[in-house]
Amino acid sequence: MATTVAVAAMSALAIVAQDQVPLRAAPRDSAPAQAMLWAGDSLEIRGEKGDYLKVYDHRHERAGYVRMPAVRVQSLAPEKAPELLAVLRFLREAPGSEALGIAYAAAYLKAAPAGSIDGEAFEALGAMAERLARRGSASQAAKGGDATKAQATAAHLEVAAAYGVNMVGFEREGQVRLCYDGEAHRRVLALPATDAQKAQAALALTRHDCLPPDMTPVDRFARDNWRAELLDRIAADKLPEVMRNRLRLRKAGVWASLAYQRARRPELGTAAVQQAGNRALTELAGIDRNELTEGDAATYTDAAIRVGASRWAAVSPAPTSHPSARLSIALSTGQPGETCVHLVDAKHDLRKPLLTRCTYGVVWAASAMPNAKGTALALAVQPLDTWREMWVFRQNAQGWQVDVLPPANDNPGLGYVEFAGWVPGEQQLLAAREVRSEGRFKSSFEVIRRTTLEVEKRADKPESLSTFYRWQSPQWKAGTIALR
């Protein structure tokens, strides 16, 4: 009898199929609980007694008894692998059952002969891990939510961790976001898999919101180059249009980031910056908006703002100073990593500028736009790859000053504000703004008082503001992303 049980333990296991299943000290409902088990827990079978299985729980390192209806006894014999794979396929599309699906993925990988394993099981494992991470992030973000759901999510994360499914937590905007470390996705790319499976894996591995926020500039540059190379390796020709759109959206965001990072490295040259900027614009322009799903609409807006923040990278750099011009800028190197902007005109050159201000951001010199009277100049400065500000140089009774107009007043995140035109004869300038604030996307077209930088009028479409519609700059209209 002992030999039979030992053989059965090696060839089968019990997978807990329900939440909050007590592991009891004896095969009785009245026996004290040794531990509380959750869907997905795997148990070593050591015998039977009545309606109970005698088991050992390796996660809690305890032996005990569980009722048979609460578990599914699964054979790990190679001939049973197709049955396990069929259950895995079902659970892959069952929200809330991620931990149970991960348990079946592990069982299938144990049972299947090594030569028969392809990317499908790992793709399902990665998809369920991603979904569980999103559940965990939503659970932590919800304040005063359902305590029972939060408890179940936390328990399922522990169950997944027991199978080696690792989650990484990042703090963003005051909240902790959980991200799967992507090991299963990397296996998909290394094994035989369909184009769609490889595309899903690449998208999961290149998410913007799962980049560690504390990466050094060198590490971030290397990571973004790796992301761009990975996405370019995916054969998109045979993919459905929806999937091709998703790849283009991700590529647009990655290349927009690379354009900013290349601009921070003068040794790469302006051609490399322009190539990245043009690639971002091309990928965004290639989106078939008629094929966007409702869920992809927000992703499209996200990608568009990322590209909008770095769009000046695609523009040929203009001379930074014009001796004959009424007003322009000149650039010089300041402290290590710093760029200094000098405001100059026909009478004030780089040696004696009207005003100087230095920044660690990327200064897009081609964006410098003076007004007709030579009393103001707008300039695009990008301190982060997803955040572009507008500097407004202006003359007053005390002399020259420069003010920074950010996309929003909260912490830098995702957004840009850009010059859209000067209003002749008026103390006004036009601006377009797109930003993600508090999880929502906001866009506006504004008439701003130049002397105070206060917004006088605002609308969600240029044609809704007669002043904006009449005096918008043709150069801005031709190049902006805001009018997509």
Textual characterization of the structure:
With 484 residues, the protein is of the alpha+beta class. It has three domains: 2-75, Roll (SH3 type barrels), CATH 2.30.30; 206-317; 324-479, no CATH class. Helices cover 36% and strands 29% of the residues. It has 13 helices and 20 strands. The chain has helices at residues 2-11, 81-92, 98-111, 119-141, 147-162, 183-190, 195-205, 217-232, 241-263, 270-285, 296-309, 466-471, 474-479, and strands spanning 12-16, 21-24, 33-37, 42-49, 52-57, 62-67, 71-75, 167-172, 175-180, 328-333, 339-344, 355-359, 362-370, 376-384, 387-396, 399-405, 414-423, 428-437, 440-449, 455-459. The strands form five sheets. Strands 13, 14, 15, 16, 17, 18, 19 and 20 form an eight-stranded mixed beta sheet that branches. It has a five-stranded antiparallel beta sheet with strand order 6-5-4-1-7. Helix 2 runs antiparallel to helix 3 and helix 2 packs parallel to helix 4.
Summarize the structure.
The chain contains 13 helices and 20 strands. 36% of the residues lie in helices and 29% in strands.
Relative strand content: 25-35%
Mean pLDDT: 93
Low-confidence stretches: 1-9, 320-324
Q: What form results from the Cα inertia axes?
A: elongated
Give the helix proportion (percent range). Answer: 25-40%
Q: Could you give the count of β-strands?
A: 20
How many individual domains?
Answer: 3
Helical region count? 13
Radius of gyration: 29 Å
Largest sheet: 8 strands, mixed
Rounded to the nearest angstrom, the distance between the terminal CA atoms is 74 Å
From the helix content, strand content and strand pairing, which structural class follows?
alpha+beta
